[in-house]
Design a protein that fits this description.
single chain; alpha+beta; six-stranded antiparallel sheet; four-stranded mixed sheet; elongated
């Protein structure tokens, strides 16, 4: 099932690599930077796998326009220059900050997000309303999720049959960029409803972030 198309316009993307060991740490980094940098509500923040000798996760932020990106970049550079911050690479267009080792990962993250062909979205418009059990229609209309897909439904199990199909979000919705769309894979869950394929492990990152 597909959502109405969102007209988001051209976005400017900042990549950041702090060498996060896994998705949980990267999710925390996304939430922290959104808060500390006071990023706009329509920012899209994603995680990206960096392969190589030391696999880890980088993050990226798509801002709504060039002015918002410039303002965020200026605040980010001031933050990362603090001696108390861990070594971190950041990029915006051709501008770079930080050790080359981490700039490479930040560049990868920014490029993937800008191309909308990879990246797992943690923060995106409408994510705050995706709590509890909601209809598929609400998920697609009220958030930036463009499409959903159904994985592993047995015969007689739930289907993407219409707008009233129920989705148990568990407060943890992580769509991924695929071919220009934010795609959310769903799987059958107990009670004849659907749920996002990715489960909170062990608890939603945002819950920990709120109580940090």
């Amino acid at each position: 099932m597909t959502a109405p198309r969102h007209t988001s316009g051209v976005r400017t993307v900042i990549g950041v690599d702090a060498g996060c060991a896994g998705l949980r740490d990267a999710d925390h980094l996304v939430h922290r930077l959104v808060e500390v940098l006071d990023l706009p509500a329509d920012t899209v923040g994603c995680t990206h796998l960096v392969r190589g000798a030391r696999p880890h996760t980088a993050v990226s932020f798509a801002l709504p326009d060039a002015d918002a990106a410039e303002s965020a970049w200026e605040r980010l550079v001031v933050l990362l220059a603090d001696p108390g911050e861990p070594p971190t690479g950041a990029v915006l267009g051709e501008r770079e900050f930080g050790p080359a080792e981490w700039v490479d990962g930040a560049t990868l993250a920014a490029a993937e997000h800008a191309g909308r062909n990879a990246g797992r979205a943690v923060v995106f418009p409408g994510v705050d309303v995706l709590n509890g059990t909601i209809t598929l229609e609400r998920l697609l209309v009220d958030s930036a999720v463009d499409r959903v897909s159904l994985l592993g439904s047995p015969a007689g199990g739930p289907e993407l049959s219409g707008a009233d199909t129920l989705v148990m979000t568990r407060g943890h919705v992580r769509p991924t960029w695929q071919a220009g769309d934010l795609l959310l894979p769903l799987v059958p869950a107990a009670g004849g409803v659907l749920a996002p394929f990715e489960v909170p492990n062990p608890t939603p990152c945002c819950a920990d972030h709120d109580h940090a």
